[in-house]
Amino acid sequence: MRSLIKKFETKKYLLALLAVSFLGMFNSLYLTYLHFSSEANSFCNFGERFNCEVVNSSSYSEMFGVPIAFLGFTMFLVLGLMTIYASENTSKRKITVQIISVMLFFGFIYSIYLVYIQKFVLKTYCTFCIVLDILILLALILSIIALGSIKIDHEAKNEKEYRDSVNISEDVS
């Protein structure tokens, strides 16, 4: 019974991770749209301290000519696909979630760098970029919790197999 409950918890964390990946994809797509849009967007601009247009049109908004926002979309798309794979494929779940966690860790480190650029170089923040950074952190936390839940699932499965083998050997004697 404990194993069944833990499996449900693992699925619950993976479902939450999938939801965060969809939110991240939509947010990233919107930021990509803003990057290429020539019109000023008052929806995201709140004066000098919060101005998505300044951040999203700066030289820091691209890497090798590709908008950072689109790279974020790609990361969240891969996150979503890998989460679906982990959810459906229990034999590869642990390694898949480990890869997800590593990917998100590096994404989080890069987002810290981008927050630094916003605060100290550009001296303005992009509201949607900050939301994206929070989503990356949330996804990282969820992936680590899911990984711990998978470990508990694995230990419960081993314990059940051990008990079953002991019961079989006791029935034989």
Q: How does this model look, in words?
A:
The chain has 173 residues and is mainly alpha-helical. The chain has one domain (2-172): VKOR domain (de novo design (two linked rop proteins), Up-down Bundle). Helix content is 79%, strand content 2%. It has five helices and two strands. It has helices at residues 2-36, 52-56, 68-88, 93-122, 127-172; strands at residues 62-63, 66-67. A two-stranded antiparallel sheet has the order 1-2. β1 and β2 form a beta hairpin. α1 packs antiparallel against α3, α1 runs antiparallel to α5 (127-172) and α4 (93-122) runs antiparallel to α5. The radius of gyration is 21 Å and the shape is elongated.
User: Strand order, biggest sheet?
Assistant: 1-2
Oligomer: single chain
- N- to C-terminal separation? 27 Å
Q: Give helix % range.
A: over 70%
User: Which structural category fits the helices and strands?
Assistant: mainly alpha
Strand proportion, as a percent range, falls in under 5%
Number of domains: 1
Question: Which properties best describe this structure?
Answer:
de novo design (two linked rop proteins), elongated, 2 strands, 173 residues, mainly alpha
Brief summary of the model shown:
The chain has a single domain (2-172), classed as VKOR domain (de novo design (two linked rop proteins)), CATH 1.20.1440. The protein has helices at 2-36, 52-56, 68-88, 93-122, 127-172, and strands at residues 62-63, 66-67. It contains five helices and two strands.
